[in-house]
Amino acid sequence: MKTIKNKILVILVLIAGQYVKAQGFVNLGFEDATLSPTPVGGFGGDVDPAMAFPGWIVSGAQSILYNNRTLGNTMAALIGPSVPDFAGDTPLQGAYSALLTTFQYPGQPTPSLSQTALVPDNAKSITFLSASPFNASSSVEPAFGAVTLGGTSLSLFSIGGTRFAADISAFAGQIQTLSFSGNIYFDDIQFSTTAVPEPSTFALVGLGGLAFGLLKKRQIRLFLRK
């Protein structure tokens, strides 16, 4: 009888484990922080990663900070909500944004934020905001950072303003690890059902716009000659 109960218990644990693993990604906008806000123009200090980045795993960060900077350590910092902070930072969207920084000294670890969860069944792309922390309205391509899903580095490109996107259709409906690492300031991560156009499509649109502009310019010159 005891053996049967033990087997049932094991089955229930396995089912519960699968249920937990099948949960979707959380806190993709970093709004779930439970820290006491710093004053405008002020700065915080070292914080508990579970309070700064609920749902995320912080790795490789020698310092985990709130509205602050390091002088050489790799770091993961939460920025917001009372802005600007002492460094003039403003969140990309909402109350908070995440900042990863590495000085790339020899032997220095690479800071990352990651979480493992279920990619939506109908997801075709992932998008997020990324810019300079000192000017949230200025688009800065996350060239020094990396975004991976399932251990695969994603090919990122701008889709307008400060928003970047990548094709993740191959991972739809799978439990995978999403990771941001290196030097990157980011926020508002979204899984989208919209497919990301191929970079060549954007190139054709750009060429079309250039051709249209040249044509209009030629028409204006011809008009002025008449």
Structural description of this entry:
With 226 residues, the chain is an alpha+beta fold. It folds into 2 domains: 171 residues, Jelly Rolls (Sandwich); 29 residues. Helices cover 23% and strands 31% of the residues. The strands form 2 sheets. Strands 2, 3, 4, 6, 7, 10, 11 and 13 form an 8-stranded mixed beta sheet that branches. The longest helix is centred in the last third of the chain and has 27 residues. The C terminus is likely disordered.
Q: What is the share of helical residues?
A: 10-25%
Number of strands: 13
The residue ranges in which pLDDT falls below 50 over 5 or more consecutive positions are 6-21, 201-224
CATH architecture of the largest domain: Sandwich
CATH level-3 fold name of the largest domain: Jelly Rolls
The level-1 CATH class of the largest domain: Mainly Beta
Total domain modules:
2
Can you summarize this structure?
This protein has helices spanning 2-21, 49-52, 199-225, and strands at 57-59, 63-66, 75-79, 97-101, 112-118, 125-132, 135-139, 145-149, 152-153, 157-160, 163-167, 175-182, 184-192.
Topology:
Elements: H1 2-21, H2 49-52, E1 57-59, E2 63-66, E3 75-79, E4 97-101, E5 112-118, E6 125-132, E7 135-139, E8 145-149, E9 152-153, E10 157-160, E11 163-167, E12 175-182, E13 184-192, H3 199-225
Parallel strand pairs: 2-3
Antiparallel strand pairs: 1-5, 3-4, 4-13, 5-12, 6-7, 6-11, 6-13, 8-9, 8-12, 10-11
